[in-house]
Batch of 2 targets.
Target 1
Amino acid sequence: MSLRDRLIVALDMPDLEHAVAHVDRLGAGVLWYKVGLQLFCASGRRAVETIAGRGKNVFLDLKLHDIPATVEKAIRALDGLPISLLTVHAAGGPVMLRAAAEAARSIGSKPTVLGVTVLTSLEGNELPGVWDPGTDLEGKVLALAKVVADAGAGGVVASPRELSALRRAHAAPFRIVTPGIRGPEDRSHDQKRTLSIGEAFALGADHIVVGRPILEAADPKAVLAAYEAAAGLHASTERMTG
């Protein structure tokens, strides 16, 4: 597989016009895009439809977290949208996760539901009244991932630091989507738990999510080429000719 098949570019944009400009700028080099809260709140369903209309796969990262009935109804309301991946918070619990997975299987695009474990902006000590002080952060992520798997959801979103333990516990087709990926020249921004692209793939990531280091680059296609080299992956034929 090429990097194009495994890289998700995060379109954390204030409006659809800016998002589409980036999609067009990157061209055939990127197949997957993340539509998160900012863009979805700004442009709604049209954001998903427009990006998918350009032949791209959409990862809708809404991190839904509410009572089971509300999450189920929210996902059913997404029917008709071409979504490949969809996030909910694993901390919503097994009943909510089961409701999410069942709702996703009932809509047309049948997106894979991913449970977000511990945000990569956290180190595990920010909420002492919530986090169990007797369990390290990796243990917390593994516990949440087990709840996700037992509920019938398709995978998790987790930092690259937990990849090795997660992959030992959950073989494919359980998906692991990993933000917090940085190249050697990239700033970490607000990400706390990061690794390199090559490390993430070697440890078992199915997809990596990168935003600012690509979108803010003067030459984003050069960044993609550097990422491919760092990952030990080859550009696809479509990328080379696109």
Target 2
Amino acid sequence: MPQNKPIPKIKGEFLLGSLRQMKANPLQALCAWQRDYGDLASFRLATRHFYLISHPKLVEQALIKQSDIFVKMYDPKKPTGLGLVLGQGLVTSQGELWQRQRRLMQPVFQRSNLASLHSQIVAAGNNLLARWRLLGDGAQVNLADEMMQLTLEVITQTMFSTSVLDKIEHIAPALDTALRYAAKSVMNPLRIPLSIPTQANREFNAASALLDDVIYGIIEQRRAQTAKHNDLLDMLLNASDDNGNLMSDKQIRDEVATIFSAGHETTANLLSWTLYLLARHPDVLAKLRQELDALLQGKVPTAEDLQQLLYTRAVLNESMRFRPPVGIMMRKIIKDTEIDGYSLKQGRLAMFSIYNIHHHPDFWPQPERFDPERFLSDENRRFSFMPFGTGERICIGNHFALMESQLLLSMIIQHFDLQLLNTDEAEIEMAVTLKPKGGVPVKLTARSRHR
């Protein structure tokens, strides 16, 4: 019988393991560990043991061939990570509950249904452009904040037929606080229980209460209405199981929180990074403008136009490769198993580094170069490119996110020039998602209508 290959162990401190490195800069740590130890390595954060997986073949063997062993880690009695914010929503739930909810929500996100959401995305985009015009040439804005507001408006209008713009200055920081706390809870098993009123716990509880108020408010407002909206919220409120039981308010809250959070945060990051990268690569921006100006001549793209904007899509794909909105995926290993001749132990956590895979030199020549041309070929990149995850748990909103990003990017690029106010390279900050640290401060200049 072949010997199992030994898994390299990342050296850490006696009690804390690699916790100090991970807390200081998680992304930097994960990149360094792949470079120094290879595509599969084990590490410890205090009492918690992890495997770091950074190769497409290992992803396929774990998440496709053994998806019943590498499972989501939600524990209703002791939630950590995103479970603290999203409860048992679609991103965190598992088993029968997940299958039922996925089946229920799938129709909203099918390509055939997305065309009906086009006009709402365009309306949100037009509101942004009008607001920028009012600010006047030379106005300075932070793109990260602007894109967060824009995508929050899109998700609440399209999925819940409502707007939260009047509460935006409270919602954005509350979401940020909640998601940062969630990320730290996975990385640090030594955290103090939520019931003890430390400053971090108080801030998280206050942020959670605010988000719950907003989400339950959206649900109650809809229940009080008689008109049909035929949106995701209607679907959730009217769905019943085989016995005719409706979903509990808590389950509806968890699903709304999931779509609300996951559905705008990642797209906002994608747009922020893309606009930042275009500002740093004038040759790519010129080529993108050439495609947009030739095909659209200043108008908003229709659903048919989007199919023809091949370079625009290549720019977004390369942006998601270079700065993936979600940097890692986590799974719990529920029984001893093997991938590629390596033995993995039950109870440990598998951390799949999307960032490392997207920068793997075996699959991406010159991985640190931003080059949309890579995506103009028909190369099969099934597991080497996975910004939306992979397998049965692939993001339900991937087609929606791409349509939204393509539409909004083409609207912004046609109408505005964006000049970076800081010429240094933006630092990457990894909480649950990958963000530009401090955002992206830019100066706005409206483009002339008569090109």
